[in-house]
Design brief:
alpha/beta; four-stranded mixed beta sheet; globular; single chain
């Protein structure tokens, strides 16, 4: 306990880092999406670059098949940028699907053709770090702050646009990651896969910062690594969408489809992505959107309601059961 920063309480009943309040879904303020949509649907193609001989990380080995180089692991992922991305792009183009690319930003420099293709289509860029073989784990505060400066400047240099959010490289965090993201001007984080709606996140500056739902359930990496088939993935996606669409009639939900070119862009799987999109597109009350647009809409229309609701829930509970009202709010 002694080394935990004082702005990160750990009250019983909360998530361990005290980043979010527990808000039961059954009595939250109602979320409304543009156009009366029930589901905010966003697609996250993870376009990544894995280094053949990455620098050693003190706490995490990117290639677990030692010793390096891991030709099998590297070449499988390299397939995604050589072939899989372009096959996947055909399906996304056919459905005119907006995307939030979870991007290892070095892709802009190593594979400029991919960068140009994404920018031509107006894809929103969400940082996934510089390389997917370099992690936040083990970084000092100053190293992580410099990393964020690099990602922001790289995004602006290649897109002309500000960076709004991040899925951390390999979804690895330090205790300070959300604080430093907010400090750098980002507005959302997708590492926290704990909800079907956006929720406010507590950061030490008191800035307005949001968790946007991402997915490991509908993420082709864990699905296929656990030996599920493409047909299984389709069935899972349809089932999740149908439930969220029904529930979204009462209060808007978020559905994220997380895909990787080296998996979903293989010859035997691309048709499964098409089947999922056909199912979603057959429904009218869907907001086809991006992670940044979801965060901005929530901040503009629902953030204050959720913070006030959390404060009201805390009234009457024993001290320490819920976190204190957020520093810096309004």
């Amino acid at each position: 306990m002694a080394d935990r920063p004082p702005f990160l309480p750990n009250p019983p009943g909360s998530l361990p880092p005290g980043r979010v309040d527990y808000l039961p879904m059954v009595d939250r303020p109602r979320i409304t999406w543009p156009g009366g949509a029930r589901v905010a649907f966003w697609i996250a193609p993870n376009v990544e670059h894995y280094e053949y001989l990455p620098p050693r990380n003190p706490v995490r080995n990117p290639w677990v098949r030692n010793p390096h180089p891991d030709v099998q692991g590297y070449s499988q992922r390299d397939y995604g940028n050589r072939v899989g991305f372009w096959r996947m792009l055909e399906v996304l183009d056919k459905h005119r699907t907006p995307c939030t690319v979870s991007l290892n930003l070095a892709v802009f420099e190593h594979f400029p053709e991919i960068g140009s293709a994404m920018m031509e289509r107006g894809w929103e860029v969400m940082s996934h770090g510089i390389y997917n073989t370099r992690y936040l784990n083990g970084m000092s505060e100053e190293e992580e702050r410099a990393f964020l400066v690099d990602t922001i400047e790289t995004t602006r240099r290649h897109t002309g646009l500000p960076l709004k959010g991040m899925l951390s490289p390999a979804v690895g965090n330090t205790l300070l990651t959300p604080d430093l993201m907010a400090e750098a001007g980002l507005i959302y984080h997708t590492d926290w896969m704990h909800d079907d709606q956006p929720v406010p996140m507590r950061v030490r500056s008191g800035a307005r910062f949001v968790s946007v739902p991402y997915s490991t359930e509908l993420n082709d990496v864990p699905v296929f690594l656990n030996h599920h088939t493409g047909a299984d993935f389709v069935a899972m996606a349809k089932a999740q969408f149908d439930v969220l669409y029904r529930e979204g009639a009462d209060s808007g939900r978020v559905m994220c489809l997380a895909i990787h070119p080296y998996l979903m862009g293989t010859p035997q799987r691309a048709r499964h992505l098409e089947e999922i999109l056909d199912h979603v597109n057959a429904h009218d009350a869907v907001w086809h959107t991006t992670a940044g647009q979801i965060a901005e809409h929530f901040l503009a229309h629902h953030y204050d309601e959720f913070v006030d609701h959390a404060a009201a829930l805390a009234v009457g509970h024993p001290p320490g059961l819920r976190g204190p009202r957020w520093e810096g709010e309004r």
